[in-house]
Amino acid sequence: MFLEESKDKYLTFNLRESSQHINHIRKVQELTLNKNRPQIGLKGINGLYCSEEWWDNISQNKINHKFVSGIITRIFKSGQDRGEVNNSFELVLDNGEFWEEGIYVSNEEQRKLFQLGSKVEILYVFDELKSGRMLDIVIQMSISKVSNNKSN
What we know:
There is one protein chain. The protein is mainly beta. Helix content is 13%, strand content 33%. It contains two helices and six strands; from the N terminus they run βααβββββ. It has a six-stranded antiparallel sheet with strand order 1-6-5-2-3-4, with no helix packed on it. A hairpin with a 5-residue loop joins strand 5 and strand 6 (134-144). The radius of gyration is 16 Å and the shape is globular.
């Protein structure tokens, strides 16, 4: 089920191995455990976010997941980030649908890999918020080593 690096693609983001997100993980876990904030955070019914129990439940397909794959058609800046760096992209999926997502990298140098025509694969898991809504969480992202765009 998990994405893997190969001769054809780079694994640019793997939440399980991301040391950059330690503070974020800690904050999500604290909100999950905080009984005084009943509407904020994850419910934790699949295990505490990024805990061994949570990862085991993903591996055993006890947590719903979604795989998205497509070709980059647009790269852009979105949100309120202060920098001038593109942080998002648009994919066209095999069925012709368009999909937008942020660029997830474990190493900032990998941002330059996100180019028009490159193939991206994203693995999401779904976890329930205390409010009852489902949250889709990017746990892995990969990109092709060779662009599919003939003009490159």
